[in-house]
Amino acid sequence: MPPQTAAAAARAILNSLHEIMASRSSAQAKLNQIVEVIGATLDSEVCSIYLLREGMLELYATRGLNQQAVHVTRMAVGEGLVGTIAMNIESLNLAEAAAHPDFAFRPETGEEKFHSFAGVPIVRRQRAVGVVAVQHVEPRRYEEVEIEALQTVAMVLSELIANAGLVDEDDTHGSGAHLTGPERLQGMALVKGIASGAAVFHQPRVTIEQVVADDIEAERQRVYLAFDKMRQQIDRMASQAEFGAAGEHVEVLQTYKMFAYDEGWGRRINEAIDSGLTAEAAIERVQQRTRMRMRQIDDPLLADRMHDLEDLSNRLLRIVSGQLGTAASMGLKGDAILVARNLGPAELLEYDRRRLKGVILEEGSLTAHVVIVARAMGIPVIGRLHGLRGKLREGDQLLVDGDRGVIDVRPTPSMAEAFEARFAKNRERLAHYAAMRDVVPVSKDGQRVTVMINAGLRDDMPLLNLTGADGIGLFRTEFQFLVSATLPARERQTRLYRDVLEAAGDRPVVFRTVDIGGDKVLPYLRQDDSALEENPAMGWRALRVALDRDGLLKVQARALIEAAGGRTLNVMFPMVTEPWEFDAAKAVFESQLQFLKKRKKLLPEAIRYGAMLEVPAIAEYLDILAPRLSFLSIGTNDLTQFLFAADRGHPKLAERYDWVSTAIMRFLSRVVRTVAPYGTDITVCGEMGGRRLEALALMGLGITRLSITPASVGPIKELVGQVDLGAIRTAMDGWLAQPPPSMRVALLEWAANHGIDCD
User: For a 10 Å CB count at each end of the chain, is N or C smaller?
Assistant: First the structure.
């Protein structure tokens, strides 16, 4: 069958299907007619339709098999050839069906005389709701054009049978009963916290109102116009590049643009239109084929490229349908839990923070950009929840427990009541800590402890006053890079840094230079082989990238120096591993300082340079490096995983190694002793300092400067007032000299004996 014959056959079938479904016949009669039309048009001896009902694939209509098998033959998803097609959502094309390992013979169908077999899934909203299969007596593989014609018919059939009520649209298992009663979903806790609200899908479904085209040429023109508009958008993204060497940003977006201008992609959509589909249906038809190919790809780099094509398909579909925008553009109507396959940090920031209470993701990881930003915003996030759209509906009530990674969907009144009681207790605790805003953290023996917050967004600045923190001990400058479509220009960086300093007033702000690379990949920066690192946390990232791309660090240095004119600038370099790296980064700032001095710019009163201790190797250089430092910040998150060779993002290792283990305590104690003679300030910035027991341990080591999440400021202030620092230091010295079986147990017992609440 030549290509034009395939398109003509598909178009003839579509027209017939349209007439059949518009008739007043029963659903069964319509299906009986449909298999006859498909079989006759494709010259097939057998054509059968299986539909997913009550969790089973049921033979609903057939031409060529025994009619007595209709509504009798049923197979589970994954059983037999039909079940395999539905499970994998991919086609099969076999010259000899019985030779396939998944073949399952059903004697009641009378199919033993048929050798060749081809089947395609009937896909509805990315789920298989049935299968269309054809068979022949002679062993032969079907032509590709025949399979494509069958796939086009199956796509249209999915819409038609759904409109006829032959399958439950929201049913992944058949019955749909689980979409009315309560259900508990277990995922991975990515950002802790609890929240409740109505489910809101980030990407509302594009509803295809019409599948069969009335005027093929008109549909073709709609696609041409949509392609033009999409390409203009992509070109505009490229032209808005704000930094870098000439031509760099053209290369950066090259892959994305390559797909946008790919003639093969447009040709496949046109071929689908030729078969009789509307523009929307044709794009969706080609997108379905892309998804099937993606499932067969093992190469992660190639799979990422296919995801780019998926993203562009969604963009094109929204343009051609006129259904533009995400749920953010339409506005949240009340307390909402956002549901998405994945999410970018910029997309998250588009939502109304007063109404966005939580996020649940089908994918997601602890190091995903959106998770980093959500953690800073205090929004609980749960990830790794596959098939979410088949388990809940838009508007379903959700209870999100980000502490345990659990979501209750459509909770019963008693479940909601228990959750609300827990929520109320949480609010009381938060109100108690909020009342400590003006409390100065001074220990029982009169020693001042500095409690600062970590931040990274302009919107974080009001939290300084709300918590009464002493300043910002870690401002993550990379957040601006992560949430931008292009690399932020120097002027934009300067505005942000100046706004932050002005909001802080006379309180210090420590700016960490950009920590990108490794797992924090920026799509607008040209990638090399480092993008494929197996261990990104220990790879090409942070200061290593900044020194390699010295233009990036020069621009940031100039922006920080200009923003801090007339003030003290505190700048900190991440992931310093050897002293020369610190010296090289400092030299970049000093050169920019001289550059601005010659141009009579207002300069900072002073620049204090610091380093982050995250890589254990730098501890061996502290006697050399400390005299050059104004301050040292210990990043406990990375340091811990490096010391234990344990990825903190690995679910089986995340809780395995204890922050207050003897190994960590002895390492930090040695750092404190080494730095002490030089008068260098030591701060711990990381989750460790925000936990009460861990903070108690740090104070026992002599560390009295903590930079923590804003939510932890109140609890840590309260803790400080309960502790005699001299006493805990004496106890810690004893434990370090003669370690107890469990440092955590020893600390808990000591705290209990001294009336200190470390819960």
Answer: C
Type of residue found at 405: G
Tokens 């607008």 label which residue?
Answer: 524
Tokens of 510: 């420590």
The token pair that represents 63 in the structure block: 């031409």
689: nearest Cα among 633, 746, 756 = 633
**Domains along the sequence of the chain with CATH:** 3-177 (3.30.450.40), 181-204+327-413 (3.50.30.10), 216-321 (1.10.274.10), 440-753 (3.20.20.60)
Instruction: Grade residue 125 by pLDDT with cuts at 50, 70 and 90.
Output: low
Give tens-digit pLDDT for 686-709: 888 988 999 999 999 999 999 998
As a whole-number percent, the residues of the chain with pLDDT over 90 amount to 40
Rg, the chain, Cα only: 31
| pLDDT attached to residue 248 | 34
Say whether pLDDT at 484 is over 70: no
How do residues 379-422 score in pLDDT, each as one tens digit? 999 998 877 776 888 889 999 998 889 999 999 888 888 888 88
Higher pLDDT, 673 or 549: 673
End-to-end CA distance of the chain: 73
How many Cα atoms occupy the beta-carbon half-sphere of 715 within 13 Å? 20
d(CA 728, CA 272): 74
Say if residue 303 is exposed, middle or buried (CB neighbours under 10 Å; 0-12, 13-18, 19+). Answer: middle
Asked if residue 631 lies in contact with residue 675, where contact means CB atoms within 8 angstroms, the answer is: no
Nearest CA among 35, 86, 281, 52 for reference residue 166: 52
pTM exceeds 0.90 for this model: no
| φ and ψ of 92, to 5 deg | -125, 140
- CB-CB contact of 14 with 214 (8 Å): no
Per mean pLDDT, which range of 214-218, 342-346, 535-539 is the poorest?
A: 535-539
Q: Find the DSSP H helices in 599-739.
A: 622-625, 636-644, 662-675, 692-700, 713-722, 725-737
Strand order in the sheet with 46-53: 74-76, 56-63, 46-53, 127-136, 116-124, 92-94
User: For residue range 503-518, what is the model confidence (pLDDT) as tens digits?
Assistant: 999 999 999 998 875 5
Q: What is the DSSP string of 672-701?
A: HHHHGGGT-EEEEESGGGGSHHHHHHHHHT
Distances in whole angstroms, Cα of residue 169 to Cα of each of 27, 28, 161, 198, 264? 16, 18, 10, 20, 32
Of the candidates 290, 312, 282, 156, the residue with the CA atom closest to the CA atom of residue 216: 282
Question: Can you read off the two tokens belonging to residue 120?
Answer: 């395609």
Are 433 and 206 in contact by the 8 Å Cβ rule? The answer is no
Going from the C-alpha of 416 to that of each of 196, 357, 410, the distances in angstroms are 9, 16, 9
**pLDDT at position 174 over 70:** no
